[in-house]
Amino acid sequence: MQRINTAHAVRTAIGNRSSVLVPTMGGLHAGHLALVRHARTLADRVVVSIYVNPLQFAPNEDYATYPRRIEKDCEQLQTLADIVYTPSDDEMYPQAQTVSIALPPLATQFCGVSRPLFFQGVTTVVCKLFNQCRPDIAVFGRKDYQQALLVDRMSQQLNTGVKIELHPTVRAADGLALSSRNEYLTAEQRQQAPALYRTLQHTARQLHTNNTAPATLCATAQQQLHAAGLRSDYFAIRAAADLGEPVAKTARTVLAAAWCGDTRLIDNVTVLPDGTLV
Fold it and tell me: What span, in angstroms and rounded, lies between the C-alpha atoms of 84 and 10?
């Protein structure tokens, strides 16, 4: 494994071989490592980027305290990645970033309401990583479903040539989606947090088996989250393909964000037409 700090050196190390990029902000856990293992099956060279991107954090968010442990991250990647790309701020943003991507209305919904800078920052840094590393494929986790749809749309419409591959959400034994921010949870909050996934599962099953209106299901789900000690940010049912309005007998995604103490959790469950949950 090589640890590389410049885009030019990454491209030189890849050469003419096929490559797959796994973009991360570090603080690696088993979910990240599952993405990297999957990436290993897709191309000749696996590149994992580690960069805490300031553009996607609002002033009141956790940029300063976000987990940073680059040496430990590299140790975990030693036998999994060919290249760990750890650019500096100057490498990523050699000039003040005054150019941005015009995003579709989806970016202002759901997570885009609570985090208005988030998707602009994510798509900017991902576009830069695609330009710098020039991968054939990029792997993202399904937990960040809205983000993945926006990145896929960006990649297609800007003709990056990068195929977006989604990997299933990796969960703890009790169902909590793995996230670097889970380490913010206290012991008591860690016991409360899996209620989000349980509520998503229950709602998805109800969506498939009865004719209750989605709005009613979402209102009930928010009450369930409150009873479990979580504060709902949003809870929605949308078409899986584009997070537009849901259509019966098609794949639909139940997506939510909720606060557990001061930690914001996000998750989603998709129910396929045959009732399978993914």
Answer: 9
Instruction: Give the residue among 92, 128, 95, 131 at the shortest CA–CA distance from 5.
Output: 92
- Which residues touch 125 (CB under 8 Å, ≥6 apart)? 23, 51, 53, 55, 56, 92
List residues with catalytic annotation. Answer: 32
Residue 272's CB is within 10 A of a number of other CB atoms, namely: 14
Lookup: tokens for 132? 């710098």
Return the SS3 of 184: helix
Strand-pair category, 45-50 with 19-24? parallel
Q: How far apart are CA 219 and CA 64, in angstroms?
A: 35
Write down the pTM of the prediction: 0.96
Judge whether 270 and 240 are in contact, CB under 8 Å: yes
Q: What Rg value do the Cα atoms of the chain yield, rounded?
A: 19
Return d(Cα 43, Cα 165) in angstroms, integer.
12
Q: How many CB atoms lie within 10 A of CB 57?
A: 17
Q: SS in 3 state form for 194-256?
A: CHHHHHHHHHHHHHHHCCCCHHHHHHHHHHHHHHCCCEEEEEEEEECCCCCCCCCCCCEEEEE
Query: What pLDDT tens digit does each residue of the chain (278 aa) get?
Result: 999 999 999 999 999 999 999 999 999 999 999 999 999 999 999 999 999 999 999 999 999 999 999 999 999 999 999 999 999 999 999 999 999 999 999 999 999 999 999 999 999 999 999 999 999 999 999 999 999 999 999 999 999 999 999 999 999 999 999 999 999 999 999 999 999 999 999 999 999 999 899 999 999 999 999 999 999 999 999 999 999 999 999 999 999 999 999 999 999 999 999 999 99
